[in-house]
């Protein structure tokens, strides 16, 4: 029994050490991680802030890993992936959901709407319902915030 408690203690300390290195969620990079919300990526523990981010990550883990490693911040969002070979993925021009209250990275599998001939990506379907209440107003706010770069091409 003593060996089991020692092993459990070491595992807990190990998870805490990784969580200490990874401070922010790779999907909602302004929020701190919760060590109870995690996924495995290439056998490496990745921590999220909530179950919604876990579900989003699971849509396209490779995309989110690459996107998280390209987010400009003081420290890499996923320091545990330093040195890990990531796939070559072209990121969407639109990086963040235009309507989510907390900045949330979107991926090609995220829910979408077509608006003015272009695809707009949302973090989750409920964001589309909020968008649809006032599409023009939502579009204007998102454009002013710089969240829809796909419309800069015109």
Task: Give a quick set of tags describing it.
single chain; 154 residues; alpha+beta; two-stranded antiparallel sheet; 5 helices; globular
What does this structure look like?
- This protein has 154 residues and is an alpha+beta fold.
- The chain is 38% helix and 14% strand.
- The strands form 2 sheets. The protein has a two-stranded antiparallel ribbon with strand order 1-2.
- It is globular and about 45 Å long.
- The chain starts with a helix and ends in a 10-residue tail after the last helix.
- Mean pLDDT is 88; it is low at 3-19.
Write the layout of secondary structure elements.
Layout: H1 2-21, E1 34-41, E2 44-48, H2 51-59, H3 61-70, E3 112-115, E4 118-121, H4 125-133, H5 135-144
Antiparallel strand pairs: 1-2, 3-4
Summarize this entry quickly.
With 154 residues, the chain is of the alpha+beta class. Helices cover 38% and strands 14% of the residues. The chain has helices at residues 2-21, 51-59, 61-70, 125-133, 135-144, and strands spanning 34-41, 44-48, 112-115, 118-121.
């Amino acid at each position: 029994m003593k060996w089991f408690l020692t092993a459990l203690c070491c595992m807990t300390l190990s998870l805490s050490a990784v969580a200490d290195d990874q401070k922010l969620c790779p999907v909602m990079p302004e929020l701190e991680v919760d060590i109870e919300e995690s996924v495995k990526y290439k056998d490496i523990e990745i921590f999220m802030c909530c179950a919604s981010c876990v579900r989003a990550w699971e849509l396209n883990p490779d995309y989110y890993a690459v996107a998280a490693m390209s987010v400009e911040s003081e420290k890499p969002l996923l320091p545990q992936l330093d040195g890990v070979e990531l796939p070559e993925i072209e990121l969407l021009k639109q990086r963040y959901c235009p309507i989510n209250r907390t900045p949330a990275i979107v991926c090609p599998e995220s829910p979408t709407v077509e608006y003015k001939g272009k695809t707009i990506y949302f973090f989750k379907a409920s964001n589309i319902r909020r968008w649809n209440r006032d599409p023009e107003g939502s579009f204007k706010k998102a454009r002013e915030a710089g969240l829809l770069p796909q419309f800069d091409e015109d």
